[in-house]
């Protein structure tokens, strides 16, 4: 479950699956361009903002989980919220996601992924990377506290300066 970053990953996986049908054959993606962590944490449907769609119907994230009944749901959200500037608020959203999943999709294991790093050139006007790193640490701590799996996808993507390798992206 994610935003445009997860949508890019989905495109990459789909391209690999054309060559290798056995490459994660059962994986399903739920993405929306400009999808917010805030929106994912809401019980009600959010009008006027990006929402997930399942079978062509827009619905809140908890309802998508309830309908799809996945064993696991990996969540990569927060970039569109600029969540590094409001870390505690973001952690509150994540806690709410866990509460909603426990209520409406109790058999689904929620897994949070770290925010991906950005290139140094992306940070020309404002250096978001240290804020995102701080958010990732807070998310990791919350996951340890709640017994939720946390996957650090940021560390392997960083160069020696702590930013996304420019060969991987233009932002």
Number of strands: 5
Radius of gyration: 16 Å
Shape: globular
- Taken as a percent bin, the fraction of beta residues is 5-15%
Helix coverage percent: 25-40%
Q: What average pLDDT do the residues reach?
A: 92
What is the subunit organization of this protein? single chain
SSE succession: HHEEHEHEHE
- Uncertain segments are none
Describe this structure in words.
This protein is of the alpha/beta class and 171 residues long. Helix content is 37%, strand content 11%. It contains 5 helices and 5 strands. It has a 3-stranded parallel β-sheet with strand order 3-4-5, covered by helices on one side. A two-stranded antiparallel ribbon has the order 1-2. The longest helix has 18 residues. The radius of gyration is 16 Å and the shape is globular. The two termini are 21 Å apart.
Care to give the gist of this entry?
The protein is α/β, with parallel strands linked by helices and 171 residues long.
Please specify the SSE layout and strand pairing.
Elements: H1 4-19, H2 37-40, E1 52-54, E2 57-59, H3 61-68, E3 72-75, H4 87-104, E4 109-113, H5 129-146, E5 149-151
Helix pairs in contact: 3-4, 4-5
């Amino acid at each position: 479950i994610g935003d445009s970053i997860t949508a890019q990953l989905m495109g990459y996986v789909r391209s690999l699956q054309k060559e290798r049908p056995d490459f994660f054959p059962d994986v399903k993606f739920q993405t929306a361009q400009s999808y917010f962590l805030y929106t994912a944490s809401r019980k009600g449907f959010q009008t006027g903002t990006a929402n997930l769609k399942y079978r062509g119907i827009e619905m809140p994230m908890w309802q998508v989980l309830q309908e799809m009944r996945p064993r696991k749901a990996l969540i990569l959200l927060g970039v569109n919220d600029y969540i590094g500037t409001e870390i505690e608020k973001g952690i509150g959203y994540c806690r709410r996601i866990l509460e909603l999943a426990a209520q409406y999709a109790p058999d689904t294991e929620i897994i949070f992924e770290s925010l991906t790093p950005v290139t140094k050139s992306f940070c020309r006007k404002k250096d978001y990377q240290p804020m995102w790193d701080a958010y990732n640490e807070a998310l990791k701590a919350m996951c340890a506290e709640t017994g939720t799996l946390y996957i650090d996808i940021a560390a392997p993507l960083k160069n020696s300066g702590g930013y996304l390798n420019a060969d991987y992206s233009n932002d």
